[in-house]
From TrEMBL:
Organism: Mixta intestinalis
Protein name as annotated: MltA-interacting protein
GO CC annotations, alphabetized: cell outer membrane
Keyword match Signal: yes
Gene: mipA
Keyword field: Cell outer membrane, Membrane, Signal
GO biological process: peptidoglycan biosynthetic process
Family: Belongs to the MipA/OmpV family.
Signal peptide: 1-21
Pfam families reported for this sequence: MipA (PF06629)
Compartments it resides in: Cell outer membrane
């Protein structure tokens, strides 16, 4: 199944990766560009060029920013340990607003945990539970998605619907305002709790030849109240788009 996907953490640019290659072509490489809308006041939307490197083996797999080891794998069920890079961040030096420039940086991190997929005729359920392993946020994120793929010859479309739960630590690191930040900038102190953010996603893939594929992935996330009520945030939703081309060996 060649399709674009983002696995978990879609608030900003969470953990993401291109879809896994077909079994007949276990290695896929290519190039892509990600557009990530900033949720922050004065924040800059980002365009991120990213190489595509996917590998699907009997035990190990790699999907660009995410990799893992299968604990169980058959045609219907896949359970794996996984590590995933999270590109979510806040860089005060990139902000245009004076008060926001005085806030501390929120850095990218590495998330680790478990991922499970169930594939059936009625669609696919994908879920993962990941925690910060670099002690940046000390946060935990749980993502649950339902997807169904439609095939039209060389063209396929996969819509999906899901939700992401973020722990209080995750929200406080990326959207909270500490007491010393408030005193320094005048921005109100903010200490959010855990939250749920629903989203819809759509991926489309076109087979250009036996080994070449082009695709686009987009996800629209409705930000939770705990996020959009932050004095750092001025959006109630967020859009991520990922497009590129790949070659399967």
């Amino acid at each position: 199944m060649n399709q674009f996907k983002i696995s978990a953490l879609a608030l900003l640019l969470p953990i993401c990766g291109f879809a896994y290659a077909e079994e007949a072509h276990p290695l896929t490489v290519g190039a892509s560009v990600i557009y990530a809308q900033s949720p922050y006041k004065g924040g800059q939307d980002r365009y991120i060029p990213l190489p595509v490197i996917n590998y699907e083996g009997d035990r190990f797999w790699l999907r660009t920013l995410q990799g893992g080891y299968y604990l169980w794998k058959d045609q219907q069920d896949q359970l794996s340990l996984t590590l995933a890079g999270s590109a979510q961040r806040y860089d005060s030096s990139d902000n245009d607003l004076g008060a926001m420039k005085g806030l501390d940086k929120r850095r990218m991190t590495l998330m680790g945990g478990v991922e499970y997929r169930h594939i059936a005729d009625w669609g696919m359920v994908r879920t993962n539970l990941l925690g910060d392993v670099l002690d940046k946020s000390d946060g935990i994120v749980w993502d649950l998605t339902y997807l169904y793929r439609f095939d039209f010859g060389d063209f396929s479309v996969t819509p999906g619907i899901g939700a992401t739960w973020s722990s209080a630590n995750q929200n406080r690191y990326y959207y909270g305002v500490s007491g010393h930040e408030s005193a320094r900038t005048g921005i109100s102190r903010y200490r959010p709790d855990d939250s749920w953010s629903p989203y819809v996603e759509l991926s489309a893939n076109y087979r250009l030849g036996e080994r070449w594929n082009a695709g686009i992935y987009t996800r629209y996330t409705r930000l939770a109240d705990e996020v959009k009520d932050s004095p750092m945030v001025d959006n109630n939703s967020q859009l991520t788009v990922w497009t590129g081309i790949s070659y399967s060996f």
